C-alpha cells in the first residue's frame, strides 16, 4: 500500500508593521506607480522579531489546524536564508518555542525555493516510512539583510512565515509529483555578499545584495517551465486537471506568465504579492494558508506550484489537497505589535548603509 504525505495543517505569521510604496518613496528615488507597474507590489511587512519567532507562530497555527500536539512531531524542517544566527539552527529554536521534545530539526536553504525543496524532502521521508508527522516551515526576515540604498532590490522583499503539517496517510493526497533543480552557472545573479568567506575584520556595515533582475526573470521562466513540464508528464495530468495555481510570489508579470502557461484563469490563480512583496521561502506556505482560508482551495483540489530562488534553484510540484479545508482548532495566532513603525525600523538602516557606501567611496579616492 502506498503511503502519502497529506497536508493536514496550515498557518501563517505576518508582522503587523506595514511599509507602503509611498513610505519607500520618502527615502528612495521611487514611487508607488513605478513599483506597482513593474512588480505588482503595493506594500510589505517589516518584522520587529526574529525569524524563529515568526516561524514558531506559523508553526503553532499549522499544528492547531491539524489538531496535532507538538510532541507528536518527529521532524521539523525550516526553509530560510535569514536565520537568526548561524549556529544553532532556526528549526531547533522553533522546536524549543513550540514545546516539541522528540523531533529531529534542521534548516534548509534554497532561498526562495526552500519551501518546495522542503516539501519534496518531507514527502520522501514520509513515503519511505522514516517519518510520519512533519512540520514544514518557510520563514524570512529579509528586511534585515537588504541594501536599503538599492531601489531595484529594496522594493521587492518583505518579512513573514508560513507552515504546513504533513502526515502519513493512505489517501492519495499531498505532493504527488515534484521536480527540483539548480542552475548553478547563474548563481551570482542573485547573491548576498556576506558569510564566512567575508572578511569580518574589514566589515564596514554594507551587506551588498546583488539582484540582476532581467537575467533572473529569463532563467526563472525557463527553469519553472521545464519543471512544470516534468510534473505534468510524470502524473499524466494536463492543464485541464488543475484547479488552482499557487506560485512563488516574486513578480506579478512572472505569475501572469505561469498562469498563461498552465491555462489557469485569474480567479484560480493565488496572488498576494501586492500585500506582502516577496517573502522568499515563506511565499508558498502563506499563499496556501490564505487560499484555504478564503475558500479558493476546495476538498480534493489539484494544485500546481512553481518556484525559483538564489542558486539559481528551481522547482515545481503537483499537489492534491485532502478532504478537510477547515482547521480543527483556531489557527489565527498573531504577533503582538512592536513599538516601532516600519519606517522607524528601516530608515536608520538606509541612512547607515548610505553613509557606509560614501565612506567606502572616499577610501578608494
Automatic annotation (TrEMBL):
Pathway: Lipid metabolism; fatty acid biosynthesis. GO terms for cellular component: cytoplasm. One of its GO terms (biological process) is fatty acid biosynthetic process. It is found in: Cytoplasm. Residues 233-321 form the Beta-ketoacyl-[acyl-carrier-protein] synthase III C-terminal domain. Residues 106-183 form the Beta-ketoacyl-[acyl-carrier-protein] synthase III N-terminal domain. SUPFAM superfamilies: Thiolase-like (SSF53901). It is an enzyme of class 2 (transferase). Its EC number is 2.3.1.180. It holds the Pfam family ACP_syn_III_C. The active site is at 112, 248, 278. It catalyses: malonyl-[ACP] + acetyl-CoA + H(+) = 3-oxobutanoyl-[ACP] + CO2 + CoA. Residues 249-253 are annotated as: ACP-binding. The keyword Cytoplasm applies. GO terms for molecular function: 3-oxoacyl-[acyl-carrier-protein] synthase activity; beta-ketoacyl-acyl-carrier-protein synthase III activity. Keywords: Acyltransferase, Cytoplasm, Fatty acid biosynthesis, Fatty acid metabolism, Lipid biosynthesis, Lipid metabolism, Multifunctional enzyme, Transferase. Belongs to the thiolase-like superfamily. FabH family. The last Arg residue of the ACP-binding site is essential for the weak association between ACP/AcpP and FabH. Homodimer. Catalyzes the condensation reaction of fatty acid synthesis by the addition to an acyl acceptor of two carbons from malonyl-ACP. Catalyzes the first condensation reaction which initiates fatty acid synthesis and may therefore play a role in governing the total rate of fatty acid production. Possesses both acetoacetyl-ACP synthase and acetyl transacylase activities. Its substrate specificity determines the biosynthesis of branched-chain and/or straight-chain of fatty acids. This is Beta-ketoacyl-[acyl-carrier-protein] synthase III. It comes from Idiomarina xiamenensis 10-D-4.
